[in-house]
Amino acid sequence: MNETFEHPDAAIAAIADRVLPVGVELGCEDLVGRVLAESIHADRDSPAADVSAMDGYAIFPGQLSQSGELNVVAECVPGSPPPELSPSKSSGSGVVRIFTGAVVPRGCDRVIQREHTIESQATIDDDAASLGTIRWKPQANESQPGLNIRRRGENLRGGDLALPAGTLVKSPQMASLANFGIRSASVYSLVRVAIITTGDEMASEGDGGPPISPWQIRNSNSLTLAALIDACSYTVIPTLAHSPDEPEALRGVIEQAIASHDAVLLTGGVSMGDHDYVPSVLKNMGAETIFHRLPLRPGRPILGVVYQETSQAPVKPILGLPGNPVSATMGAVRFALPLIAKLAGVSDWNPHPPLVRLEDAGSKTLPLHWMRAVRMIGPGLAELVIGQGSGDLVSMAQSDGFIEMPANANDEGPWPYFAWS
Ligand code: AMP
Ligand code: MG
């Protein structure tokens, strides 16, 4: 079989190029975890006025040269408009006490932080309205114009782009949305993923049913893949289905899944065995094979196809992952998650895995991209979790993720690291 793609990224891109984001939902109010389908623009300047970045004293030019006691003539508090003061009058007579976030009075050119002043409280003998006095400490004279003032529009000008379409809304993006008064927005629809496991060896244990036999296995892939899809905030709860190793039954299950989902993930039945019907069934359905077999371990038999019911219908990706639990899980993280992000409308759908070094890479090399389970043991440092191969789901559960080494490498890296979600 022709292994068309040298690198997993190229194989993923070849499918991603063919699929478009799913539909759009208008006026969504629950935006956390969703992907914006419209750009968000600032409704006003951020900040909306010149505001103080400190608790201190707003001063007019020239007031620092005044020695001795200066009267505090007004207070600026957050949530109130600033007092209108005439510079000539104020510069002669006093300063304005200001609190963080309050609007700086017109004409003031800086804010001297409290710590750089000596403050005297008003006494009982003073006028009831007196706000006390201050004197400058030497540090105050080192200040420059503009000090401690957050300028109107310095974050963003009203009307400018705050968040482009294709942004995944997490907590920081909520700050921006809230700040610009966005309560609802158009988002991409949640991606519907179907997970189909295959194999006659799967036990269906139920109340009162026969106990599991040694020639049967429990269906772990189904729940592993469901957990991965569930962890994506932009998917609906995936649909789980199972098919025996029988072409007609398999075709029925796939057709049903594809009709009501945006992507289908299959596990098992993609190798060269006599009971591996997934590639031929998909081919007979008219799916277009993008890749079958990649220079990859584990998961070499992986199958990537796209399916379009009619020429007007959306192109849907279908991944056939090998049945071995480690292959299926790593394959789902590496191949399925980016494609689902693309379907979900995430503009930056390509993963940016951090790089980690291996404490000990061992001496073995492979002429394939090698995905190896690791445990993080320090900042940017991982150790290999040595298991019994692609069926060893026990050791996989003791890992934090996997690294990917290119063909023939066996050094410490650093290598791209894909954490489990
Ligand atoms: P296959 O790719 O169908 O040849 O399966 C390879 C191996 O993975 C076999 O040992 C299967 O028993 C195992 N396997 C297949 N499907 C699952 C599943 N859903 N859960 C756990 N193991 C599986
Ligand atoms: Mg099988």
What does this molecule look like?
- This protein has helices spanning 8-16, 87-93, 171-179, 220-230, 247-259, 278-285, 325-343, 393-396, and strands at residues 24-28, 40-41, 51-52, 56-59, 70-76, 94-98, 110-113, 117-120, 133-136, 149-150, 161-163, 185-188, 193-198, 239-243, 263-267, 288-292, 296-297, 303-307, 316-321, 355-358, 369-378, 381-384, 401-405, 415-419.
- It has 421 residues and is α+β, with helices and mostly antiparallel strands.
- The chain folds into four domains: 8-23 and 190-343, Molybdenum Cofactor Biosythetic Enzyme, Chain A; 24-46 and 157-188, Molybdopterin biosynthesis moea protein, domain 2 (Alpha-Beta Complex); 51-150, Beta Complex (Molybdopterin biosynthesis moeA protein, domain 3); 356-415, Beta Barrel (Beta-clip).
- Adenosine monophosphate binds next to α4.
